[in-house]
């Protein structure tokens, strides 16, 4: 058996060179719209009026639809129009398709304005107590088509994922790279001492920082550089050397240690609103000149020149939400 020439081998495999495979759709939306109008009114003239068109192109669209589907949809006898069984079936399906097409068009327009879509938010644990619920609630009330996905992560993880577009926005502590990111101050918090109920210091309304000297402490992990930088300067300025028992990076784990009496912990005061039984939280007191420098900032961060309209709409709206609370 001989072999085909090379050019015939290529052509015998199917597609002709230079041709694109396309699938012909069985109908278009205009044909469905014309059919539904006729099926609803059972009158070509009334259907044409409803669609603000003349009767001739309306009849042509219905005829094209029947031709495309190779079925009879309407029976026309003595100026009386009725539906065939196939027409009755198509009518329900056509209404669904047209309704869905309108939804898609509306949602596409909303998405282009940043009013429809999903935002992936990275956050630090303290932002989950009051800040995130407040911002999300207000944004959802204004733009119900926007959904949120939340990821509690370390600051370094958030910034890395933000730069890779794996997050839409991040709620972190400063500083951030101003070349890659834009930011907005969300809130300032202050330091507090978490201690077991019945601890000798728990009777005080405010805890002088000097009282932490030599006390067993659940310290922040070395990964929590922002917290450690501020606390180290505060301890040094006030001559305080806590006795660090263990270091941790998650507030829930630190509170668990406090509750068991392992030690006390210096935490953002925001945790006070969600303190668990068996733990007392009191604000820390230190020299007035340190009040501003010791404040804990939470900032909203997003990529410079962010192309996603949903994210841009959110970050543009946040200052308004903060101003109303």
- The whole-angstrom Rg is 33 Å
Through-space gap between termini: 86 Å
Fill in the CATH topology of the largest domain. D-Maltodextrin-Binding Protein, domain 2
Level of helix content? 25-40%
Mean pLDDT: 89
What spatial order of strands do you see in the largest sheet? 4-3-5-13-6
Structural class: alpha/beta
Give the number of domains.
Answer: 3
Strand/helix succession: HHHHEEHEHEHEEEEEHEHEEEH
Q: Which spans of ≥5 residues are poorly predicted at pLDDT below 50? A: 1-23
* Morphology: rod-shaped
The biggest beta sheet is recorded as: 5 strands, mixed
> What is the overall number of helices?
10
CATH class of the largest domain: Alpha Beta
Give a quick rundown of the structure:
By secondary structure, this protein is of the alpha/beta class. The chain contains ten helices and 13 strands.
Tag the structure with descriptive keywords:
single chain; 325 residues; alpha/beta; Arc Repressor Mutant, subunit A; D-Maltodextrin-Binding Protein, domain 2; 3 domains; four-stranded mixed beta sheet; 10 helices; 39% helix; rod-shaped; disordered N terminus
């Amino acid at each position: 058996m001989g072999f085909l020439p090379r050019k015939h081998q290529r052509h015998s495999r199917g597609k002709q060179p230079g041709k694109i495979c396309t699938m012909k759709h069985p109908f278009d939306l205009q044909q469905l719209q014309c059919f539904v109008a006729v099926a609803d009114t059972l009158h070509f003239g009334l259907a044409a009026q409803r669609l603000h068109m003349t009767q001739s192109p309306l009849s042509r669209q219905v005829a094209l639809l029947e031709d495309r589907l190779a079925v009879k949809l309407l029976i026309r006898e003595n100026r009386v129009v009725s539906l065939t069984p196939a027409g009755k079936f198509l009518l329900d399906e056509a209404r669904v398709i047209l309704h869905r097409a309108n939804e898609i068009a509306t949602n596409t327009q909303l998405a282009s304005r940043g009013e429809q879509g999903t935002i992936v938010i990275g956050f630090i644990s303290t932002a989950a107590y009051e800040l995130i619920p407040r911002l999300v609630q207000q944004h959802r009330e204004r733009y119900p088509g926007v959904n949120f996905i939340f990821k509690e992560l370390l600051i370094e993880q958030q910034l890395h994922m933000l730069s890779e577009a794996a997050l839409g926005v991040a709620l972190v502590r400063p500083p951030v790279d101003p070349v890659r990111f834009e930011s907005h101050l969300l809130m300032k918090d202050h330091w507090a001492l978490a201690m077991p109920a019945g601890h000798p210091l728990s009777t005080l309304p405010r805890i002088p920082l000097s009282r932490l000297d030599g006390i067993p402490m659940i310290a922040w992990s070395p990964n929590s550089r922002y917290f450690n930088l501020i606390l180290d300067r505060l301890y040094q300025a006030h001559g305080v050397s806590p006795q660090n028992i263990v270091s941790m990076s998650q507030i829930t784990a630190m509170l668990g240690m406090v509750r068991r009496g392992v030690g006390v912990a210096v935490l953002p005061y925001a945790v006070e609103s969600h303190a668990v039984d068996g733990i007392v939280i009191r604000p820390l007191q230190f020299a007035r000149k340190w009040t501003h420098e010791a404040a804990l900032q939470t900032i909203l961060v997003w990529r410079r020149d962010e192309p996603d309209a949903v994210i841009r709409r959110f970050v543009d709206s946040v200052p308004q939400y903060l101003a109303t609370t």
